[in-house]
Design goal:
alpha/beta; 21% strand; two-stranded antiparallel sheet
Length: 296
């Protein structure tokens, strides 16, 4: 039964309390209801913000600042980072996820809605409109990103089966065993404690639920790496300055890719969080990679 759920990604849990919400929902009430050991940030513990060593609290605030800055030009940013290929990657990502008509999806770091809107289009209006049908919860720590996603949802006519919740990926305000699928696209490298976010992903998924992550990764073969570095460091930040008036945010984003674990290392981190059948697939010579795992 678990295996069938894993393969077909079907679910029947009633998430009606999240349906038809078109405003950003504070996670405070959820956090009170589902109180657990809080994820804490300390400036006594260091991590990286791009190539800089910073305290955990400082990184959290710095990342928030970056995405407040780029929220209105987020699609433009991804176009610059991937030469526009991110749209093809996201389409392939959703096809690989292959959600069904009853799937309950949690899309983390999904503020602007790119993955969530693809999910709604993939399952179709009939699945979204029926009782206990497919639904997606767009989850993001950044209010500015959520506002962009909410506006886009309205423009695209996505008024059912979608909700927007603000909160921290390291401390998800949802009950155990709630969702059929958990997706995170181009977001996990910005999390301060990736291991905690992965454990939270595992916790909120139902048995048989699927974790999928799309993220920039390590280019293969090595001969292409120098060319990719040249484009990343010499083209992307100046492009960010010209197109969005923001050099520093784009510089951070380029550096953050280089600090993110390679494909095999990240796959092992997913296994350590409790996932089984962990695999990955490179996109465009490893410029990006999709990692997948199941909760058994």
């Amino acid at each position: 039964m678990i295996l069938r759920n894993a393969l077909r990604l079907r679910g029947s849990l009633d998430l009606s309390r999240f349906h038809n919400i078109n405003s950003i929902t504070s996670s405070l009430l959820h956090q009170q209801k589902f109180a657990r050991q809080a994820s804490t940030y300390s400036d006594d513990k260091t991590t990286h913000f791009g190539f800089k060593n910073v305290g955990e609290k400082e990184k959290k605030e710095a990342v928030l600042s970056v995405f407040h800055s780029v929220a209105d030009s987020y699609d433009l940013m991804n176009d610059a980072m991937s030469l526009g290929i991110h749209r093809v990657w996201k389409d392939a990502f959703m096809k690989k996820l292959d959600p069904g008509p009853n799937t309950k999806l949690l899309d983390v770091a999904g503020g602007t809605g790119d993955i969530s809107f693809r999910f709604l289009d993939y399952v179709g209006k009939e699945a979204v409109n029926k009782d206990d049908g497919a639904s997606v919860t767009v989850f993001d720590i950044n209010a500015s990103m959520l506002k962009v996603g909410e506006a886009r949802a309205s423009e695209l006519g996505h008024t059912k089966g979608i909700s927007f919740v603000q909160g921290d990926a390291q401390e998800l305000p949802f009950e155990d065993n709630t969702f059929d699928c958990y997706t995170i696209a181009f977001g996990i490298r910005n999390v301060v404690k990736i291991d905690e976010a992965l454990k939270e992903a595992h916790r909120v998924l139902k048995p048989g639920g699927r974790f999928m992550c799309l993220e920039f990764s390590k280019v293969k073969p090595q001969e292409l790496e120098s060319l990719y570095d040249l484009y990343s460091f010499q083209v992307i930040p100046p492009m960010g300055k010209i197109l969005a008036g923001d050099w520093d945010s784009y510089q951070y984003l380029v550096e953050s890719i280089r600090k993110f674990p390679d494909q095999d290392t990240f796959a092992e981190m997913i296994r350590e969080a409790g996932f089984s059948f962990v695999t990955y697939e490179d996109y465009t010579f490893g410029v990006a990679a999709v990692h997948s795992g199941f909760k058994l």
